[in-house]
Fold each of these.
Amino acid sequence: GAGVSQSPRYKVAKRGQDVALRCDPISGHVSLFWYQQALGQGPEFLTYFQNEAQLDKSGLPSDRFFAERPEGSVSTLKIQRTQQEDSAVYLCASSLDWGGGYGYTFGSGTRLTVV
Amino acid sequence: ELKVEQNPLFLSMQEGKNYTIYCNYSTTSDRLYWYRQDPGKSLESLFVLLSNGAVKQEGRLMASLDTKARLSTLHITAAVHDLSATYFCAVDMSGGSQGNLIFGKGTKLSVKP
């Protein structure tokens, strides 16, 4: 597609519920990133894929967070047993290469609210 | 600790005025990115700066990078209301080997008539 597509756009989850957030990167983009953006803050890195390989997951806040990109294209960020502190906008970004030389394109994000 | 600091965090300008936003970072990097974010929207890429001394301009915005000083600036010339948004700088601290970015807290710009 022309841009990075994320779904759903909004998600309200009850505390303890599992959620799955989807990212469809720009076709052909090698690198894919997930970021978490709290209200009024800059995005914070969660995890990074190069094709289907998850090369860095150091930013995932707990073992309740899990990401996958099985075929090197679409990625899913899963949050198990959601907590209120998980409420944030989750942004996906993709890049043509692995070094950011072409910049990064961000999706519109999924706003997760845990009640 | 890897840090990216922007200042000011809030900026109220009058139309027609000039101003500069500063982005300092804590460790060596030659890759810096500027983004714009409108309320409720995603991040729009403004500039990609990939070397010391890089300068890029687009309309009323100009960005520069001094890797020795670990400083980037975003200069606004003759501000107009349409520039009102939050501006983020982001630094690749991995040296280009990986690409995960560290973002500043953002500068919320309000341009008033």
Amino acid sequence: DAKTTQPNSMESNEEEPVHLPCNHSTISGTDYIHWYRQLPSQGPEYVIHGLTSNVNNRMASLAIAEDRKSSTLILHRATLRDAAVYYCILGTSYDKVIFGPGTSLSVIP
Amino acid sequence: SAVISQKPSRDICQRGTSLTIQCQVDSQVTMMFWYRQQPGQSLTLIATANQGSEATYESGFVIDKFPISRPNLTFSTLTVSNMSPEDSSIYLCSVGGGEGYYEQYFGPGTRLTVT
């Protein structure tokens, strides 16, 4: 399975943008880049996914490097509710989701 | 999207006993998954359960310990058998996968404590 590398933890001030990095140098051509997050005491929730082009949705933006070996999840304006563990995961639609340790994001009021 | 419910939400069990966790989805889905999340850890996939076939278990998990049923496209159960304190975890089911479906949806989890 292709692996991802994320920082263990990050901090952000409330109402500021947050850039969560993910390295995936062994990504294959068919692998999508998925992001999930897990709020405290909840199950994970889907955030966004992309293949080659940058993607935007109501929750976040996903910026994918041209060589696809890294990507960045962008929260445009962090709120306290965005404090969670964020997981960057590679796979296709048929794949099971394998979670790494993720990045624990703290949002400071 | 899919809405997933799990029963029970939490339980305290004695060692040596078994607990069956139910997972109900509000729509028909092909693939269902069971995860374990030990305290302070990330999620670990236990098995994939597709309707009409035997569950596929990940390395380190066996059917005798975690038997799974998948009787139809909206329901699955996971049994934690002969429990020990090391089985104290949150157990989550999720649905998704299949052609064109890139999102998985997760249930709220079942918090199990074994004494």
